[in-house]
Amino acid sequence: MSFLELQNITKIYPNGTKAVNETSLNIENGEFVVFVGPSGCGKSTLLRMIAGLEDITNGEISLDGNVINKIDPSERDVAMVFQNYALYPHMSVFNNMAYGLKNRGISKEEINNKVNDVAKLLEIDQLLTRKPSMLSGGQRQRVAMGRAIVRNPKIFLFDEPLSNLDAKLRNQMRLEIKRLQRQMGVTSIFVTHDQTEAMTLGDRIVVINNGVVEQVGTPKEIYSKPNTKFVAEFIGSPQMNLFNCKIENGIAHIADMKINLNNSTNVDDAILGIRPDDILISDNGQHTCVANLVEYLGSDMIIYSKIGDQEFSCKLSSKKNLNAGDTFKFDISGTLVHLFDNTTGSRV
Amino acid sequence: MTKYISLTINHFILSIGLLIMIVPIWIIFASSTHSSLFINTNGLQFFLGDNFIDNYSRVLFKQSGFFNEITALKMFFNSFVMATGIATLSVITSLMAAYGLVYFKVKYATFIFWLIFITLLVPLELRIMPSYIVMSKLNLVNTFAGLILPISASAIATFFFRQFYKSIPDELLEAAKLDGTNSLRFFIDFLIPLSKTMIAAVFIFMFVFGYNQYLWPLIMTTSEQYWTVVMGLKTMYGSISDRFAFVIMSMIPPVIIIIFLQKLFIQGIFQNK
User: Fold this and answer.
1) Superfamily of chain region A241-341
2) Of A74, A83, A88, Cβ closest to residue B178
3) pTM score, two decimals?
4) pLDDT attached to residue A1
């Protein structure tokens, strides 16, 4: 039996919107799982149902062997970090962190010790007497984390906690969250719409779209073998190129370009996906295209071009010399492509 | 330079406004320190006289009213009890009503709120007979409870608190829930401290409202023992300087309340968070 089990969880709002549909998921003790998906896909709703802040329409959630569907959020022993931190504005940092412990009837001395320990861990021990309004965004973030950590809960829930920070601070906090999670070994669920965050943080990633789990897997699995067209498009930056094509006897036809897949598949309406960095640009490539636009990113550059009327991009080391308007030659290897059925969206 | 000029103009306008408000009060105060005989012969005075202690102590402790059963000091006490009672009860009832309306899943909460709000259209003067009958059936004529209770629920204060609670993000309640708080603790640990400044503002408004009540105490009391300052103003007999002294003293309690709560009061009115 897993530590956290979701069985056929469904959430239907009173207005009839189905936010989460028949979702089942097992999370092991100590695991760091990331829910990722576009906004409005139901990932936050799922998290809030685990926290107990949202009623469950159907299905069962069990934590550490106990069904927690009907258990009050305060008794579930979960801690949550909110997107806007939700710090208590009238309380000092110390009291923000101590409040949950006070409610659990823990002695003053123990509260003092715990809060001070966690404050040191997060390097906010200088701020304990301040009010949240006197803190910077990054500091507030730390206090919100501290408030969750100090309670030593069974599970941490993060609801897009990094989205209010600037890019530099976000990277820094991302590393810190990962480090803390490893150090404490507490099971964590992290919700984000940012695929980079998902890839870097998670032991496993759950890709959600329209209230349905599209794929669950390690970052590597998700990246290298996306189950559906949606996952293929959503994970990876720059986005995977998707071409509408027809496959006859293992040969994919995109406009007048032919790619040998080295098998004998036949699909009338297929989608062929290839990541921009899997397109091999070389002087003796089989195919020729014109670079319409070149985006310079420092170490790499991204070249935008067209095959027939279908746009695509490829990634190239910026040491090579290629400008907009130049022609270039490239190869697409049949072993590096991903094939999806265009009607169902699932992998062929 | 332009900044300096506009500053001067601003201060000039403010000074005129200040003078318009303060001069009549000053004249009453200055006159109240002269003897009645002096005012009757020489008219209103702009400078202080030497009867300050005489006049004020006489007014405070003199038996007055139709039957000479009450002193001005007692009237101040009565007014203070009434105004404080009304202000305190209004704050408590409207805080709790707003809490119920915003945070409990009450069916038709908006409808109930508008029902409460609509009572603004029915001021005490309109319902004065039914209110009197209810109070007299409860044997509350000539009691402080009778003076306070019928005007101690304020729709406008409920409205203020409701709007404020609605502006508090839901995450705050959710975070508190996960921290193990219950409804009562959330009210005491969060909503009351967060609405401190609003409470001060409502308290001042309701204190002044209660202090200024005239018709209701006039109807609710038959004993002079329950007379209030505003009633006394109307029926205070005596010399002209005594009346001036009484008028000046009647302004003091609201002023004291405002001075004490001023800082919170201003924050409360201009609260934008």
Assistant:
1) Nucleic acid-binding proteins (2.40.50.140)
2) A74
3) 0.82
4) 65
